[in-house]
Design goal:
The protein is of the alpha+beta class. Helices cover about 45% and strands about 25% of the residues. A hairpin with a 5-residue loop joins β9 and β10. It comes from Haloferax denitrificans ATCC 35960.
Length: about 725
């Protein structure tokens, strides 16, 4: 750490000396507290770190001999927590992934222009503040540990998931456990079942709030002895509201609780049960006479308490019957519980389904039954709805163009369509396979794949994980390829399983051809990214510095030209790197994506009208490029105060504006690379739109909007509900 707390000492390592010095100049100008030292190699940087203390390291990635990740690996051996920011011109998902895996603090790609130094300065400041806060926290935790060990009360410390991470010596004495025996367990290890609800309520409050909560619970020692403890619980959060720790201070109050228990009257407990319970409760005898109904039972049935005490249990639940009720009661011992379902009859003659929990008790020497009932009308309606859904599912499955198999929770076939049987060369009809063993069916289908055992294992793995999967590849032995999707489905009897298969053989061949093309384009993109960006950044920075020293129209013109070069490089890299391929497709809600794009594009005084309601299947990042470029085109060419409208089409969506529009004789050329009517445009924006659309297999065309402006229509889109 630097000698002065307010000073932030930064070591910037970049093999481009001019860029490193330029970055240092901007950083020190932006923040007086920054002191930036530079080196041009990893070896020199490591030597500098050995001799001096720094608060943060900023490093390029692509350098001779040793790169930025080699630098990070060497640094982490001696300084595992020192902030390290990878500031590189060679940006890719692979480099970002490797950097994150290696433990980089932050990752920032070099851009043209000077605004990148503001971003870098903020990243440095945030990383250093977090690093210093962590060290202060460690010192605070050491002081807290001394307090806990010397406390006369038992102290338990939990993590944010309420798992025990520590207890002091007094807590060990009270509970009979050592810290090692309880570490990693939840409070359930030391709380009796009777106190679960009470403790659960306290933990729910602690999980959603700050402050302290008091409770008295029944606990169990290691030797099995039940004791009562008084708990004072507090959640500790940082300034950002994140949970730092949860502490519980407690003492054994068993003797006090036993004295209080002897003073409580049985009638008080019954009053609380009857008057405060949200459920319907009644007490009846072995003859079925209702002796004591609670207010909730009276309210639900429409009878008064006096009317109910004139009735038998089977008068209220006419599905029960005297003989069946007597058999149930005679089979119960004192303390036994039974669960039954029935239907209560209201005073007006209507009925409603109930779930009844009956317990046999000895109340003041009398043999009694306590029946706690709950209205389950909603649950029954839900089960009926699920059954109707099951019938609808069977109808839909048969009509889908992809292979579909729906399994029950016990892994038997609910529904299957002809297309799936065709894909796996299964001879039986869909009707013959209903209720068939899905495990056996998976083994038969697996024999057609290149890895039969792996096919079955993957099916079992997906079912065990119960997580959705979309379009994972399955290789068949005859050179064909299928795309498999899996979705868990909720059924009345539990979780079912929905499988969808489609033939992607031709698609995979196209992907292999595109992969070879993209590899060649990637080489070009790497050269543009690394070998052009650094000189461009140096030129842009020096022009900026020169403009601050000299007021010259020529420097302003040069700055505009450099910005245009940067925009051209960005668009060329997009065309070269992304190509005509798409990444993993996912379901994307178009309305929220358009809102995100509107916030990232400079829209000036333009207005947005978002009428989208559909969800599509697409590569989210590339679809975002398409929409951003269309919005930017409308804003740049539509004129001041333009209104941009986005909406649904039967097989896609559109982006329109009320601007000046595009003449009919130019509509065929607007998608050509380099075509533009704006001095500030690059001419590649609409070319990228066309590229992204075609990469998804969509079509894009331009026409006139209803207001006389421009309207772009994207069609042939795959919707999340299976429409295309």
């Amino acid at each position: 750490m630097s000698e002065t707390v307010n000073e932030v000492a930064v070591l910037h390592v970049d093999d481009d000396e001019a860029f490193a010095e330029l970055a240092a100049a901007f950083l020190e100008r932006m923040h007086d507290r920054f002191r930036v030292e530079t080196e041009t190699s990893v070896a020199a940087g490591l030597d500098r770190l050995a001799d001096e203390e720094f608060d943060c390291v900023v490093s390029d990635y692509d350098m001779p001999s040793l790169d930025g990740l080699d630098f990070l690996e060497a640094l982490r051996e001696d300084a595992p927590d020192l902030p390290f920011i990878l500031f590189t011109g060679k940006g890719s998902e692979e480099v970002a992934s490797d950097a994150i895996s290696a433990g980089v603090t932050d990752y920032l790609q070099k851009e043209h222009g000077t605004s990148q130094y503001t971003v870098l300065a903020n990243r440095i400041e945030n990383a250093v503040e977090q690093y210093r806060s962590q060290r202060a926290l460690e010192a605070s935790e050491q002081r807290l540990s001394l307090f806990i060990e010397q406390s006369p009360l038992g102290v338990l410390e939990y993590d944010s998931d309420f798992r025990i991470v520590g207890l002091n010596e007094r807590a060990e004495d009270i509970l009979g456990y050592s810290e090692a025996e309880l570490r990693g367990h939840t409070w359930e290890a030391i709380v009796t079942e009777g106190s679960y609800d009470n403790v659960d309520t306290v933990t729910d409050q602690l999980a959603t709030d700050t402050g302290g909560y008091h409770s008295v619970d029944e606990n169990v020692r290691k030797d099995g002895e039940h004791i009562h403890c008084e708990w004072h619980n507090r959640v500790v959060t940082d300034d950002g509201g994140e949970v730092v720790a949860v502490f519980s201070l407690f003492q054994d109050v068993t003797e006090r609780i036993e004295r209080e228990a002897r003073l409580r009257e049985t009638t008080a407990r019954l009053t609380a049960l009857f008057e405060e319970s949200p459920d319907m409760v009644n007490v009846h005898n072995v003859d079925g006479d209702i002796l004591d109904p609670n207010p909730q039972l009276c309210e639900a049935t429409g009878y008064s308490a006096a009317e109910l005490t004139e009735m038998k249990v089977w008068d209220l639940d006419r599905t029960l019957g005297a003989e069946r009720a007597t058999d149930i009661w005679n089979d119960m011992e004192q303390g036994d519980r039974r669960r039954i379902e029935g239907a209560y009859t209201r005073k007006d003659g209507s009925t409603f389904p109930v779930e009844v929990h009956v317990r046999r008790l000895d109340l003041a020497g009398e043999d009694r039954f306590v029946a706690i009932s709950r209205d389950i009308s909603k649950r029954v309606d839900h089960e009926d709805e699920l059954e109707r859904t099951k019938v609808l599912l069977s109808t839909l499955v048969g009509a889908l163009p992809v292979g579909v198999l729906a399994e029950n929770s016990d892994r038997t076939v609910l529904a299957v369509n002809d297309r799936l049987l065709e894909l796996f060369d299964i001879q039986e009809s869909p009707a013959e396979l209903v209720d068939a063993d899905c495990l056996k069916l998976a083994r038969e289908a697996g024999e057609l794949t290149t890895d039969p055992e792996g096919f079955v294992e993957r099916v079992d793995e997906l079912i065990s994980g119960s997580e959705s999967v979309y379009s994972e590849s399955v290789e068949l032995a005859r050179g064909r390829t299928l795309a498999r999707s899996y979705e868990p489905i909720e059924l009345p009897e539990g979780t079912g399983h929905l499988w969808m298969y489609r033939d992607t053989t031709e698609q995979r061949e196209r992907e292999r051809q595109l992969q070879r093309q993209n590899e060649r384009l990637s080489e070009f993109a790497s050269v543009v990214s690394h070998d052009l960006r650094n000189p461009l950044n140096v030129a842009t920075g020096n022009v900026q510095l020169a403009r601050e020293e000299h007021d010259s129209d020529r420097l302003a013109t040069a700055a505009e030209a450099l910005d245009r070069i940067g925009d051209l490089i960005d668009d060329l890299l997009t065309l070269a790197r992304e190509g005509d391929d798409v990444g993993d497709c996912e379901t994307v809600a178009l309305s929220s994506l358009v809102d995100d794009c509107w916030r990232t594009v400079e829209t000036a005084d333009a207005d947005l009208r978002n009428d989208l309601t559909t969800t599509v299947v697409a590569d989210r990042s590339r679809l975002q490029q398409l929409i951003e470029n269309l919005v930017r085109n409308s804003v740049e060419h539509g004129g001041p105060g333009v209104t941009v409208t986005v909406g649904d089409l039967p097989n896609g969506f559109y982006v329109a504006d009320d601007g000046d529009g595009i003449s009919a004789d130019h509509r065929d050329t607007v998608f050509e690379a380099g075509y533009t009517t704006s001095r500030s445009g690059t001419g590649f924006g609409l070319a990228i739109v066309k590229q992204v659309a075609e990469a998804h297999g969509w079509e894009v065309r331009v026409t006139e909007s209803a207001e006389g402006g421009t309207r772009f229509e994207i069609t042939g889109v795959d919707f999340a509900d299976g429409r295309a």
